[in-house]
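Amino Acid Chain and Its Fold in Token Form
===========================================
What this section holds: a protein sequence and its matching fold, both as plain text.
Structure line: whole-number tokens from a learned vocabulary of local backbone shapes, matched to residues.
Purpose: to set a sequence beside its fold so the mapping can be learned.
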Amino acid sequence: MLVGVWQALSAAGLVADYLLPGPGKVVSALWRISLDGTLVTHLTPTLFASAAGWVCGGLLATALAALVAEFRWVERSMLVHLLALQAIPKVSLAPLVFLWAGFDIGGKVILVTLICFFPVFANALAGFRSVDAGLMDLMRASGASRWHTWLHVKLPATLPSLFAGLEVSVAFALIGCVVMEFVGATRGLGFVIQDASSTYDLPLSFAAIIVLGLIGVAGNALLRRARGRLLPWESRGRRASSQGATGG
């Protein structure tokens, strides 16, 4: 419906092409950069920096959330500082990151890591703190070690919340990477959008934006697939609830 309305506005001439090009022109621009290699040239650094920063941010956030939830002294010494750092808009750090890390891919990875850290950290910490108290009592009564309890009880119980944070951070990773490419990169989809906008090549800008959207959709689809593999009890629970509702 959205594309239909978009096409109708363009065909009727209600919106000028230099403000909103028609879908056909955007598809044509996307096809053109796919054939001449421009898409691959600029997609690769954006995809790599986003994925690397997302992985680094997710691993760091999960590790710190586990430490904060497991040890009271870590919570007392670090949680306040982490919450204070969370209040800083990460996009505002982009110029500083470029000064410190340069215009190469390292700066993009650093900013993406910072942006992805807090959604994963907040969800993981909530997951670690919501473990069933009865299961914890059972593990203590059976003499299980702290590591065994964490690995077999706390981590599986936290996975649903952790995956929720990882899914949210996929979009944040792309945002952080594109912002860094706006600031001073010479390669990447963010650079393509900025450069095309400065020359009023809006079909190319829209084409790059569509590619970013497709990357986000693909990333979330892969995460949902991994979630189904790692959390099979969720699928069984949904099927059981569906069958119960149908039977009722």
In short: Residues 146-184 form the longest helix (39 residues).
